[in-house]
């Protein structure tokens, strides 16, 4: 169940949420998210998460750039180009700030081994962007920013306001911001347009791609909570 309140949710996006079922809402009650919200999350777990997230966002940026090549409308093309840049610059600034506080550098991120979920999630998005229809590609990309927007609102509902001394105040402020909600409104509109232009088979595959990404989102929290490494 989505908690989005700052933007209209088009019909196909609602269908995507329904197809994701419990996979969507599970993230809201994951222990990593609960600890992040109340500030009790350990610095070690958050550090692991931030570093893996930085590498995931490289894949998100690559997928958005690939999608831009598929867009026939120049304004849509520019939006995905901007989305690719935002993943590396705006969210990259967040990672850099926490890196200074938690003791990691861009070089540390670049040489870090990708966790199992990080690699699988990146590959899923890139395969959809490179080989799927446009609606499949956009559907695979959508859950990450949409879920983070919902989580930002969810956390604010839970804690009321962000305390100035909250250890993860910058993270909470970014994903609960009006600017991020505006970004999501546009992305959901683009998803709807791609769905409208697709046939039933492509829309069905897009629902599967969306659901897979929603599951990867939960798995990403779990990977960070457990600080997972490859078992062999």
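Q: What amino acid sequence fits the structure above?
A:
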């Amino acid at each position: 169940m989505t908690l989005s309140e700052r933007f209209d949710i088009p019909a196909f996006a609602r269908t995507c949420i329904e197809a994701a079922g419990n996979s969507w809402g599970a993230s809201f009650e994951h222990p990593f998210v609960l600890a992040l919200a109340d500030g009790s999350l350990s610095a070690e777990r958050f550090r692991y998460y931030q570093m893996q997230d930085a590498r995931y966002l490289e894949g998100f940026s690559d997928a958005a750039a690939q999608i831009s090549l598929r867009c026939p409308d120049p304004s849509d093309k520019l939006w995905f180009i901007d989305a690719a840049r935002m993943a590396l610059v705006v969210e990259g600034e967040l990672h850099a700030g926490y890196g200074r506080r938690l003791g990691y550098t861009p070089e540390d991120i670049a040489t870090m081994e990708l966790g199992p979920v990080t690699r699988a999630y990146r590959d899923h998005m890139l395969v959809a962007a490179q080989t799927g229809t446009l609606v499949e590609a956009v559907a695979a990309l959508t859950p990450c920013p949409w879920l983070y927007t919902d989580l930002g609102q969810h956390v604010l509902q839970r804690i009321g306001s962000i305390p100035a001394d909250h250890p993860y105040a910058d993270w909470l402020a970014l994903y609960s911001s009006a600017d991020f909600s505006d970004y999501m409104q546009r992305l959901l509109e683009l998803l709807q347009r791609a769905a409208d232009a697709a046939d039933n088979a492509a829309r069905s595959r897009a629902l599967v791609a969306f659901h897979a990404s929603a599951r990867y989102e939960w798995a990403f929290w779990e990977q960070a909570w457990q600080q997972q490494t490859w078992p062999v």
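Q: And what stands out in the fold?
A: The domain at 11-226 is CATH 1.20.910.10 (Heme Oxygenase; Chain A).
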